[in-house]
Amino acid sequence: MAGTAISTLDWLRFFRSFGVPGTKKELGIAEAAAAELAAEPRFLIYWFQEGGWDGYSMFNPVHTPNDATRSIPAGTLRPAPTWSQHKYRPKSYGTSPLNPPRTSGGIQYGYLAEDGVPLFPNMAVVSSHNGNTFHSGGRWEYHYGRYSASLSAYRQPVERTVMQAFCEAYGNGYLLPHLSWHRWLSDGELSIPSYPEGTGYYEKLGPVHAHTLYGKTPADMRNRLMSLGSVSQGQRNARIRQFTDNLQSNFLAEKNGESVRAFSSALTIHRALTGGTGVTINPQTMFTDATLRAEFGVAAADETTESASINGNPARSKETPNTNVQALMAYEMMTKGLSIGFFIENRGLRLFDSHRDRRSIMSNLGQTDQAATMRRNLWNPLKALVTRLKNTQYGTSGKSYFDYTTIVLASEMGRTISGDVEAILANAGLTDTQKYDEIMAQDCCQHWRVNSVAFLGGTVKGNSQFGRVGSVSLEGIPMMPDGTLDPAYDPDTGLLISGRTKNPNSYISDPGHVYSTALHLSGLDPAALRAAGKGKNDRPAMTFVKKP
Questions:
Q1: Confidence (pTM)
Q2: Is 400 exposed, middle or buried (0-12, 13-18, 19+ CB in 10 A)?
Q3: Which pairing describes strands 43-48 and 405-410: parallel, antiparallel, or unpaired?
Q4: Domains delineated in the chain
Q5: Is residue 35 predicted with pLDDT exceeding 50?
């Protein structure tokens, strides 16, 4: 912990080196003081589909024909409908299981979300949402929110990722509060030497208990937990010894509240690690429980890492296991009182980045179908995690871990389902053969800003949906501050109604709104945090997502 407060990790290292100081009476005072200071627990999970999901088949659904099934003679420049009017959907779209948009509860969804329907009673979807068509920029914004910033600049002390802001507020009583399985520079889009430590995504913003720690694999985490006692702590020991010289008065002093909470948490963890309680944390056996592994569908191959070469760069890796393993690790770290904030991301680099040119789309009779990838990387492990959280009571609270958890589902962008060829046709410098070749080579599954996001958790207004995509505009329809659609727009086509003007207060949400909403759902005031220099995101929370 920065400043004079002593963190849980500081205390735990001290205990393992020098033993637990204090009498039973003093320890009882610490636990009682910590209990008085303790608020309800909070947990935050971002579950990110890196690469760009097919939003039009997910949570910003539209129904269109699949023009990839048309038989058009080679060389045709102006078919009817025109190339620019074509809409391309995954092969067999419109027939089960690739059904047109359906509605369950209060949520309209595309076929890619079919496996997630059992989660809808606890889910709110925002369908008027724009991502970012730049992979690295989009992923950065879902971490940091939206404000004027340069990716290559050194991060300032007042900046925070959403998880850093959350863990700064709630994480001081935990050993490893902030765990992440993303790697911002794993994508080959950016040059690693151009982003020295402190630029781009910077792990060390805020106090120590807010810093990003990479979860890596189960074996890596077991080794980390087993080695905590041997980590040198030199410069903190003097401060701790000064505190322990007069435990009773320090425990009773309100100004030492953070240190008291940290002491009590460290005492609980220390007892668990050393068998001093009924619940023992044995790092060597963590993530090995056969029942849990079966529930999360974990096979040995899921615990390995992957690497890939992007844009001709040397192969890079996120050093992470598959998402079902990440989810299992998050569950154990959460329920053993070790961590509270988690950023889960697919293991494969650009896994959802399903580019396809018109020639291959027409040959395949459709776009890439992301259903199997979505099922394996999102729905199956997410449902296993939610079930476990709902069935695990938090202490003696009478509430489940899920009741105290907020989960955000997102991807940095959506994908196009068409391609405008008018500029190609108007190019007098091309022969008809060259024009046709360019039309066929056009990427019709490109990065696209039109996107969606979903929230789950104990404070989320379930079975609810806000915003939608116009059936003609294929753009998000602006929302009013209460989540209703701007009445200046046709609620079906998404087009501005003749004679009407956009309401100046209506908007399409972006990653900054998601950042603030996640904190709001977690009991924090994002505007107050920004005013206190704990984050620069300037978008307001979508308060309508929260239960009344």
A1: 0.88
A2: middle
A3: parallel
A4: 29-223+320-466+509-545 (3.40.720)
A5: no
Return the pLDDT at 538.
98
Beta-strand runs (E) in 364-506: 405-410, 414-415, 447-448, 450-457, 464-466
Percent of residues, the chain, with pLDDT higher than 70:
83
Determine the average pLDDT of the residues in 300-316: 88
- Between CA 459 and CA 544 the distance in angstroms is 11
Rg (CA), the chain: 25
Better pLDDT: 54 or 275: 54
Confidence category of residue 227, pLDDT binned at 50, 70, 90: confident
* Those residues with Cβ within 8 angstroms of residue 513's Cβ, 6 or more apart along the chain or in another chain: 126, 129, 539, 540, 541, 542
Residues 6+ apart with CB under 8 A from 366: 66, 68, 69, 88, 89, 90, 91, 92, 93
What are residue 400's DSSP bridge partners?
393
Nearest-angstrom CA–CA distance, 289 and 295: 10
Which three-class secondary structure state does DSSP give residue 273? helix
Mean model confidence pLDDT for the chain:
89
Residue 454's nearest CA partner among 65, 36, 47, 18 is 47
220 pLDDT above the threshold of 90: yes
DSSP element (H, E) containing 381: helix 380-390
Cα–Cα distance for residue pair 405/460, rounded to 1 Å: 10
Alpha-carbon distance 257 to 36, whole Å? Answer: 10
What pLDDT was estimated at residue 327?
Answer: 99
- Higher-confidence position of 7 and 514: 514
pLDDT for 514 beyond 80: yes
Give the β-pairing of 178-180 and 464-466.
Answer: unpaired
**What is d(CA 190, CA 195) in angstroms, rounded to the nearest whole number?**
8
Q: Which residues contact 433 (CB under 8 A, 6 or more apart)?
A: 75
Share of the chain above pLDDT 90, in %: 76
User: What single DSSP character describes residue 440?
Assistant: H
Phi-psi region of 523 (alpha: psi -120 to 50; beta: other; left: phi over 0): left
* Angle, vertex CA 440, rays to CA 434 and CA 446, nearest 5: 125
Closest CA to 458 of 539, 547, 330: 547
